[in-house]
# Entry
Amino acid sequence: MRPARALIDLAALRHNYRLARELGGRKALAVVKADAYGHGAVRCARALEPEADGFGVACIEEALELREAGIRAPILLLEGFFEASELALIEAHDLWFVVQADWQIDAIERARPAKPFTVWLKLDSGMHRLGLAAQNYGAALHRLQAMPHVGEVVAMTHFARADELDCDRTGQQLALFNQVCAEASLPTSLENSPALLGWPDVHGDWSRPGLMLYGASPFAGTHPVADRLRPVMTVESGIISVRDLGVGEPVGYGARFVTRRPSRIGVVAMGYADGYPQFVPNGTPVAIDGRPGDLVGRVSMDMLTVDLTDHPTAGLGSRVELWGAQVRVHDLAARCETSAYQLLCALKRVPRTYVEE
Ligand SMILES: Cc1ncc(COP(=O)(O)O)c(C=O)c1O
# Structure
């Protein structure tokens, strides 16, 4: 069997959720969209359900997957509904949803649910992706509050640059949010992972941690709070072939690596079809049988190559960690000009094994 696998540490997931709640101090909506950032939404939601205040997903399809798996906790549709017809399913499955545009309010007005909807009214405080503009927010809130079939309303916004700790954009977004929502005295929801980890003065009633649940830091380098996260996913595979090469020998497609010394090259069963990034530089970190090592050469579809020259005991069957406890996914992301979000979500084809403790 192909030795590639992803180990998912559910105890680490719970540890990270508790850290999110400790930092936010109140309720935390565990964001499990995109199949829990590649970790498996149903398994992660089940592991968190005993303590999670609720779950955040991108769309009704993701919410229904959780409901069908028996998840009974509140589920919020972070992008709301895409068409009015979804309101019937929202009612049937008792979902919460974000309201981010006037057309959605028109649709809610026409609905007649048996039980009032819980809605999170989103302010566009500067991200300019979803949400009502500041000048329209009050009127939208008024309309919703006048509807007998709208129950609780939570005021929310989303930060665009909270991962940039010396950027004043987060402060500006927060100031606008406070100004627009101050008089409404609604429950609030502000923090994503970078805000929870890096902006201790930002406090809403509900935080919305995603990335940090999975043990990845949104920041480059070390960070005193983010360093308390425990990695959840370890992606590893095995060495399936070993080559002894002389000096000046090219390795792999495009001769992207040429040996400068007599070298032992190991071939690992992992490639870009698994979601590992194709264009990583020579020297990208891996761990070979638990020791730091280097990827060399271009990543192929199903294989990649590592330098075993300084790993004399490694050989066929040796275990190579691509990311996990030793190669942190955010460090790998920084080395190959992508993000931990993208690396985690891109993983596919690699079977997942869940570890409870
Ligand atoms: C509205 C909203 N809230 C929270 C999150 C979670 O963000 P993060 O993964 O940075 O914690 C996301 C993710 O993109 C989001 O879109």
